């Protein structure tokens, strides 16, 4: 079985896709027409960033306790 990316790596990929999707909406100047979708993508970006931070902090604590 090939190596699978970590959850944090997967979240970073998702964050990148969300950023690209929001940029596409903004560049096309459709933010007002798609305000609800843009808002949901922004919320998803913020939640993705929050989850990455939580997982990275937990990893640092585990590493500190293991050493």
Spatial extent as radius of gyration? 16 Å
Overall mean pLDDT stands at 92
Number of helices: 2
Question: Which stretches are poorly predicted, pLDDT < 50 over at least 5 residues?
Answer: none
Identify the overall geometry: elongated
- Main pleated-sheet profile: none
H and E order: HH
Distance between the termini: 30 Å
Number of strands: 0
Give the helix/strand class: mainly alpha
Percentage of residues in helical conformation: over 70%
Proportion of residues in β-strands: under 5%
Question: What is shown here, in short?
Answer:
By secondary structure, this protein is mostly helical.
Report on the architecture of this protein.
This protein is mainly α and 67 residues long.
What are the key terms here?
mainly alpha, 2 helices, elongated, 79% helix
Strand-helix topology:
Layout: H1 7-27, H2 35-66
Helix pairs in contact: 1-2
């Amino acid at each position: 079985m090939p190596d699978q990316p970590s959850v944090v790596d997967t979240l970073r990929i998702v964050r990148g896709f969300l950023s690209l999707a929001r940029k596409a909406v903004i560049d096309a100047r459709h933010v007002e027409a798609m305000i609800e979708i843009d808002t949901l993508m922004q919320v998803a970006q913020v939640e993705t960033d929050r989850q990455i931070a939580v997982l990275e902090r937990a990893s640092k604590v585990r590493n500190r306790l293991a050493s």
